[in-house]
Amino acid sequence: xxxxxxxxxxxxxxxxxxxxxxxxxxxxxIDQVGQRFEALGVGALAxxxxxxxxxxxxxxxxxxxxxxxxxxxxxxxxxxxxxxxIAALQ
Length: 90
Description:
By secondary structure, the chain is mostly helical. The chain has 3 helices and no strands. It has helices at residues 4-40, 56-68, 76-89. Helix 1 (4-40) crosses helix 3 (76-89).
């Protein structure tokens, strides 16, 4: 039977590994959105039937916000802490 410390550390390492993988997937998805928007351009939106309460300007603003996100959605210190834990206890 694992001690409480072993349980805590083991499950934290598993969760941090999942967080790292999820962040990488999020980064890839943000890149895909940007690439798609860049490739097709605003002209592709001509005639699109926006639902009530949402406009092309809203969509373009979302694309701009996503494009402006930094390469990482976590701080340098958070990233370093994640990788230090993984490297030490993997």
